[in-house]
Amino acid sequence: MLYTRNLAYAYPNGRTLRFPDMECAEGNVLLITGGSGVGKTTLLHLLAGLLKPSGGEVQVAGTAIQSLKSGAMDAFRGKHIGIIYQQSHFIAALSVKENLLLAKKDHTRLLELSQKLGIQSLLHKKPTQLSQGEQQRASITRALIQSPQLLLADEPTASLDDDNCIAVAKLLAAQAAEQKAALLIVTHDNRLKQLFANHITLS
Ligand SMILES: Nc1ncnc2c1ncn2[C@@H]1O[C@H](COP(=O)(O)OP(=O)(O)OP(=O)(O)O)[C@@H](O)[C@H]1O
């Protein structure tokens, strides 16, 4: 589902970041950890096609995404890749439900996912009225609504307490497995190492 070969990225006037080769099959989880500044966010942006690598290859669902032009990349991302950020970036003036329907106007799917993720009673609320853990569950719902084949999660548990951290991470993995999505979690949160065996540390 996801694999990379010889992936590298050079920021203008910066050093070249080189990443170990990685693979993640559908339904599986790959955890990427590493300290501040090692390139976790850069890697996630390369895998999402938000940055073009200066070298190497990223394959998602059989497509070498580094070769796609920007319009085609945007369309590919919308169809195949769901991204979950540490901060949920919801529009404050809209309800949670309205925010989630912006991702895809599919009421049936939204209802089904909200029940699974236990947020159906929160849909009418404004995002700021949700706790951090609830916001993360809403973010996961938003990423899942398009049934992506690749789920990328950037520090999804960093702002959560231990109980919520484990609950959110397990929920994310369970949903990825159920939908046969490959799940890649990029984090400096060492608490997640106990949950996921498939693990690469960047340095
Ligand atoms: N726009 C930029 N221009 C030049 N260098 C950059 C830029 N963005 C990031 N870098 C450098 O690239 C390296 C990797 O940054 P990145 O943000 O990917 O690390 P990270 O592992 O996500 O860090 P953190 O955990 O602190 O968020 C760092 O050395 C950083 O200084």
From TrEMBL:
The lineage of its organism: Bacteria, Pseudomonadati, Bacteroidota, Chitinophagia, Chitinophagales. Gene3D superfamilies: P-loop containing nucleotide triphosphate hydrolases (3.40.50.300). Keywords: ATP-binding, Nucleotide-binding. Residues 2-202 form the ABC transporter domain. It holds the Pfam family ABC_tran. GO terms for molecular function: ATP binding; ATP hydrolysis activity; transmembrane transporter activity. Coiled coil: none annotated. The keyword Nucleotide-binding applies. This is Putative ABC transport system ATP-binding protein. InterPro entries: AAA+_ATPase (IPR003593), ABC_transporter-like_ATP-bd (IPR003439), ABC_transpr_LolD-like (IPR015854), P-loop_NTPase (IPR027417). GO terms for cellular component: plasma membrane. It comes from the Bacteria. The keyword Nuclease does not apply.
